[in-house]
Amino acid sequence: MSYTVRYRSRALQDVEQVLAWYAENVPHVVQRFESEISDAEVLLSDSPLAFRRVRGSTRRVLLRSFPYKLWYVVDEDRRIVRILACISQHQDEQKFKSRIE
Prior knowledge:
The protein has 2 helices and 5 strands; from the N terminus they run E-H-H-E-E-E-E. By secondary structure, it is α+β, with helices and mostly antiparallel strands. A 5-stranded mixed β-sheet has the order 1-5-4-3-2.
């Protein structure tokens, strides 16, 4: 039985900001970025515990060909994956510490 994937509103804003940046600066990759986000959602829905915990109960999955990580937590009782943030691998994680713990 799969898990439901939900975004916190700030995480959804993160994804929208990344999409807007790519649309303005590298428009030919927008569809591929959207596809990778979708692939990550399917992976998290099917196997959310496949990725190790990195901060308390928070886990992360790396996108395949974009320098972004989706940070998330799993509610095993309710079978929900809650995405907390979409953060560039080049950004300082300390800046987002309150969002990913």
